[in-house]
Design a protein that fits this description.
about 10% strand, about 280 residues, NADH Oxidase, alpha+beta
Amino acid sequence: MAEDDKHLGDLAAAIRARFADGAGIDVSGGAAAAPCLARLAARGSHREFSDEPVDPALLRLLAAVALAAPTKSDLQQRDIVLVTDVTLRAALNALLADQSWTAKAPALLVFCGNNRRQRRLHELRGRPFANDHLDAFFNAAVDAGIALASYVTAAEAMGLGCCPISALRNDAEEVSRLLGLPDHVFPLAGLAVGWPVREAVVTPRLPLAVTLHEDRYGEEGLDTAIADYDRQRPYDAQRYVEDFGEDPDYGWSEDKARQYAKPERAGFGAFVRRKGFCLD
């Protein structure tokens, strides 16, 4: 019983560390899986890894686990590319030169949305593809995202560290060319995987009062919550100082506002259309 109490205490502490209002969460219902839930609540991304390689067999095992994750209507519209070729890895590293830490990760995977197989089924069965609109792309993207999250969970259960790399979409056309992705298959994100050299930093999240809703969506108290959250999230470095100046109270909201004050992946929609998707 004492051990159960300890696990529940660890879970409660992890929730409080993550959310300013986490003390209001009753953790008693998680007793049966408290150690697992506490690990999930306290997880963080890793960008520093040891030089120890990750066994390719383990990477493939984790991929199998990830691809067992839920998928919309059993359509299975997600693929994983294990990048093992040295030349290919170097080419992908070059695309991520502004995030130099990625080149030091022992393993790199690319998660892809795949609506191509579904279309092939229609050719094989002589059936019309009657849903050539935004949902075809959206379903494949969500499927790939679910697989990515599942891979992270499985890898971290093995003691590995991970960090998704959305920056691969900055050069989606070149990534697609390098990986030989045909029409209706597109890169969603990369994933760096390796043995971490230190514990992950637990990054506080927005309060649950802002992001957890019951029955109906609401925004009451949002601005105050953001201001309070900013005080929890000071940043050492400020974005685009040459454009926006120094802000003595620089926090999360200012960082994210500055990030999206600059164009980012403006050509991704055109890339997706060139892949054959209709986004209507």
